Amino acid sequence: VFTMLLWGSTYIFRVATKDMTYAKQLKDYEDAVIAKRLEELDDDEVQALVEDIEREEF
């Protein structure tokens, strides 16, 4: 019984903090896709994106 309660509490904690395996895999995949797209951009396009981001921050 104690083991089930312990497992259940750790499961709920992982769900609440989005530390589940699927969530991690999805985040890693999204980061890899964004990095790949960024690598494929020309220097001018990267500079334009940086300028847009800097404008949005203010």
TrEMBL record:
Superkingdom in the source lineage: Eukaryota
InterPro entries: DUF3007 (IPR021562)
Pfam families named among the record's database cross-references: DUF3007 (PF11460)
Protein name as annotated: Uncharacterized protein
Species whose genome carries this gene: Thalassiosira pseudonana (Marine diatom)
Lineage: Eukaryota, Sar, Stramenopiles, Ochrophyta, Bacillariophyta
